[in-house]
Amino acid sequence: MKIERNNYQIGIYLEKALSEKNMSVKQLSDCTGINIRLLSKYLINEQCPSLTNIQKIANALDKDVEYFTSDHYFKSKNMKEALLSSIIQPHIANNTDDSNSKAFKASIKLMKQVFNSSTDEGRKKLLDEFILFLSDKVYDIAYEDKNGK
């Protein structure tokens, strides 16, 4: 009899829980015994953790296992607001070089999380929109910035 295994993509939830606990991935690795590289892969949904590892992570971050396994952001329509307000907006509010850099890195990580948790069709749509955004908005901003406009 084959055992079914759920593919829990916990990146967004792990990111938020680490931020709330003010804990680094290295500190989480030390607390759980889970390799830092593996935790980094969990953060961007490049690899899915076992329930055993989710339990270790949940215990270290004072969360219930369901926090990581219920996928409530993706099941609700409030994902965008919750993610932006908890992961990116705190950095943008400071408007310093350091905080802007952190906001940019958080945005890239969020994009990886969403991309890696999407179907092939969803990934294609994300890439199409991302390319449109890059070619339309990003190029214009960079051009204006370099040319003092």
Give a structural overview.
The chain is mainly α and 149 residues long. The chain has a single domain (11-117), classed as lambda repressor-like DNA-binding domains (434 Repressor (Amino-terminal Domain), Orthogonal Bundle). It is built from nine helices and no strands. The chain has helices spanning 11-21, 25-32, 36-43, 51-60, 65-69, 72-75, 79-92, 97-116, 120-146. Helix 7 (79-92) packs antiparallel against helix 8. The radius of gyration is 17 Å and the shape is globular. The model is unreliable at 1-5 (pLDDT under 50).
Tell me the layout of helices and strands.
Elements: H1 11-21, H2 25-32, H3 36-43, H4 51-60, H5 65-69, H6 72-75, H7 79-92, H8 97-116, H9 120-146
Summed up:
With 149 residues, the chain is mainly alpha-helical. It has helices at residues 11-21, 25-32, 36-43, 51-60, 65-69, 72-75, 79-92, 97-116, 120-146. The chain has a single domain (11-117), classed as Orthogonal Bundle (434 Repressor (Amino-terminal Domain)).
Core attributes:
about 150 residues, mainly alpha, 9 helices
Largest sheet features: none
Q: CATH class, anyone?
A: Mainly Alpha
Instruction: Report mean pLDDT, rounded to a whole number.
Output: 84
* Gyration radius from CA atoms, angstroms: 17 Å
